[in-house]
Amino acid sequence: MPYDFEASRFVKVDYDTKTMPFRRLGYSGLRVPLFALGGWLTMGGSVTGDPVKEIIKTAFDHGINFFDLAENYSKGKAEETMGRAIKELGFRRSDMIIASKVFFGVRSGPNAGGLSRKHIVEGTQECLSRLQMNYVDIMFAHRPDPDVPMEEIVRAFNYIIEKGWAFYWGTSEWSAEQIEEAFHIAHTLGLIAPIAEQCQHSMLQRERPEKEYANIFKKYGYGITTYSSLHFGVLTGKYNDGIPEGSRFSRDKSEKFNAVVQALGDQTGEEMINKVRALTKIANEELDAPISALALAWVAKNNNTSSIILGASKPDQLEENLKALEVLPKLTDDVMARIEEILDNHPAPEPSNGRPPLDETIY
């Protein structure tokens, strides 16, 4: 049975923001915590049953009320597992911010994935069934779909919002050009435009969020919910001396990690690890924090970041990452400058073709 909003008003578990900062999600009025809990690589897969409830409760007790999922995470099991856990924990639905995504589907078939109107509508309905909820707060288009007209995509998301199955929609790993097209169609036809993008952003992955999307942020006030802000664990320092037995890279041989694993074995990887070691020294000796907390606080320092999605396989891992909240106020201009010097990977600006620079205090 879906999560009954009216009945949930009488549940006695009260939500407390604690010390969690909140930011607007893009140009919308929705306020989201700076850190969210995601279910990509763990929930319903490597983590099931009571441990899921323990992790979710730990997040909730630290002010996290934003939970990020997708239809294909553990082939739908992530939505089922987290939906059941949230219901059993007795949280008010109105206190929660639930996001999911459609594109990849949970079955094979010509219309079982993608961004056709058929899959967006049916995928949303199946998502709500797995979550045992009447609506999600945000539904993301998990990838762009060049085989579907953009007008069809925008109209389909507009439809699920008008039906009350979602309040907002967003994009994930779309190009700036595709986001721009979605806005153009929405504004031209009087439809609802997306409010935020979900993409990778970390000290080691910067080009898209810091350069490609710059005009999208400026023009539309677009928001970002980031994932892999620890660069698949590299920014925890666990891979400084190779790939340890029992680690994610040793267990999971799937294609999604190939590029990172291959990089660790060549000169690029050596340079990357040297940066992690230098950053670890700043984190440990100057900020009294683990490198993971510094890496997450660095992403949070970016004004365009709405929320950072954390993954966790156990409660203490989540608590370790939330130390980023203590690091954030310590990131002075001097510390940020020294981090930039170590990283040496700031996206190059667009060429000025000889024009003098504008006043940086204004532009």
TrEMBL record:
Pfam families: Aldo_ket_red. Residues 344-363 are annotated as: Disordered. The keyword Magnesium does not apply. GO terms for biological process: monoatomic ion transmembrane transport. Residues 37-343 form the NADP-dependent oxidoreductase domain. GO terms for molecular function: oxidoreductase activity. Keywords: Ion channel, Ion transport, NADP, Oxidoreductase, Transport. InterPro entries: K_chnl_volt-dep_bsu_KCNAB-rel, NAD(P)_OxRdtase_dom_sf, NADP_OxRdtase_dom. PANTHER family: HYPERKINETIC, ISOFORM M. Belongs to the shaker potassium channel beta subunit family. This is Voltage-gated potassium channel beta-2 subunit. It comes from Dendrothele bispora (strain CBS 962.96).
